[in-house]
Amino acid sequence: MSEKPNEEFTPISELGEFGLINKLTERFPLRNASSIKGVGDDAAVIEVLDKQTVITTDMLVEGVHFDFTYVPPQHLGYKAVVVNLSDIYAMNARPTQITVSLAVSNRFSLEFIEKIYEGIRAACSVYEVDLVGGDTTSSYSGLMISITAIGQADEKDIVYRSGAKENDVLVVSGDLGGAYMGLQLLEREKSVFESDQNMQPQLEGHEYVLQRQLKPEARKDVPEILEALGVKPTAMIDISDGLSSEILHLCKQSGVGMRLHEDKIPIDPMVYKLCEEFDLTTTTVALSGGEDYELLFTIDLGDYEKIKGNPNFTAIGHVVPESEGANLFTRDDKAIRLTAQGWDAMLRADH
Amino acid sequence: MSEKPNEEFTPISELGEFGLINKLTERFPLRNASSIKGVGDDAAVIEVLDKQTVITTDMLVEGVHFDFTYVPPQHLGYKAVVVNLSDIYAMNARPTQITVSLAVSNRFSLEFIEKIYEGIRAACSVYEVDLVGGDTTSSYSGLMISITAIGQADEKDIVYRSGAKENDVLVVSGDLGGAYMGLQLLEREKSVFESDQNMQPQLEGHEYVLQRQLKPEARKDVPEILEALGVKPTAMIDISDGLSSEILHLCKQSGVGMRLHEDKIPIDPMVYKLCEEFDLTTTTVALSGGEDYELLFTIDLGDYEKIKGNPNFTAIGHVVPESEGANLFTRDDKAIRLTAQGWDAMLRADH
Q1: For burial by CB atoms within 10 Å, which of A127, B100, B325, B328 has the most?
Q2: What is the value of ipTM here, to two decimals?
Q3: CATH superfamily of the domain spanning A169-347
Q4: How confident is the model at residue A2, as a pLDDT?
Q5: B12-156 in CATH: which number?
């Protein structure tokens, strides 16, 4: 379906010492004044004046988080950066630097790894962050990419998971479930292709969910929009594991309960259509699918008028006392307790 | 020889959601005032006042960098932190925070992973750094650990690789080759054990080199000693890949050549003895062995009197014009051009 490792042929071992490192990290201009020294010393040097620094890290493992049968290497590089930047935006901060550690087995060619770095470079350009360091190593099998992202914010602007309070409105950006349905589609076409290699994948018309899965974007615009609207969320988190899991995080860390209204959950029409095709319910997909990289946040009830009607945001519930717990209110107004997800989702979670 | 994965039995999958994360990151007190928020949000928050921030990252991969046949999990955790802190000290900075990303296959039990974190906790305590974040994920096979270390320094104190100048003295801390000989010893005893499982490993009397390999320390004391002596190095790097490789880095980035005197290279008597036993030359081991985590630096000739005779330091050469290149002067005064090492060493290198 897409490019395979080693369709081009320079073995990594052919490069001279540090040749790989130099090759991969060239053409990464430093864009931020805070990046004093990037790649090329024992450590990078950063200068942050009068702001706080936020730091997050995420590791993607071949066979667990991605499958090169249908994930092009450029997209892997792009997505690996984006999932980290999403965490920075979830602090209401601006990302400024990343470091990239890559472990690759000898099954991968230089050209393949360069394509991963092409994707990393594209993300650095779109999100205006600087690659300032990293580590390249061999692996026994497969490919792992671990990225650390660094950002800045004024102390007063940082939003934690812990500030939600009773009567706050629960808001989500964008729509949910697309990334998960993109994955279902790719997995189905992979099975078809494996059983009959003459079959061509049927992906036309599904660009939206495929993009949500293969080349997600972080909501860089949300902190900007909120600032322009004069709204500071009381708590915020990004949706990497699914709406249910993220709501439970906000509840636990804020010491509150939440009511989520099923009929308010924003779902793209294509996700509805695909859920029918795959015999899934959209609510389950939104609650447990994950990887949407939308931002979920609570705002003071007094700020609700400011975001009401804004096409970027949907109010999906509100904050209640902790004793009520976190519940989904279905279309026929039944309360269903939100539960944590299984191991798979947990494995992807930050800590 | 040492503990194997799964000699104790809690499968990781038995823990509830986020149970593993909570379990692993409990009992990590925050020691640094700059650690505003540690584990538990989308990102950690750090506040650095009037200083610069240095950041470095290193990934260790099972089967490439370590072998659980003879590496106890506590030591792996300890060493994974230390190799990163060494890079921070090599900037003449003080480490303050780390993030830890861990990928593990289902072959590993909770108890085994907890032992890795015991080692991480021990290193955090000894070096007074805070664990502020990370990521835990499953792997398809094997165990990978990726650590990012953050440190601070006054802008005027930071030492890059690029400041060495003609006539500077080349100095190294401690002694070299021990970590490599420790590895040779462990590999030999592993082979013996594999061919006859009744054989017990012969490791007595070799504690020094074993410690150098299994539980190395970063030279936390060196920046302190240099400050007390009133010496600021003109360039500095830590020895992770071997003396030869590190000298070439300093030369390239400073635009200079260097003369290294074979008879000055500090070697522990046990390393001499083991080299004889293994039919290796101590100079080759020091030049190419790596993993000693000593600091290699250049100082102004005028500062030489201040460090002369100090038991922590040995002057091993000096800086010459770039056109001379980097050469080893042997005991019989022949010049041998220092060369970069092969792929293996390169793979471990930072960039």
Answers
A1: B100
A2: 0.89
A3: PurM-like C-terminal domain (3.90.650.10)
A4: 44
A5: 3.30.1330.10
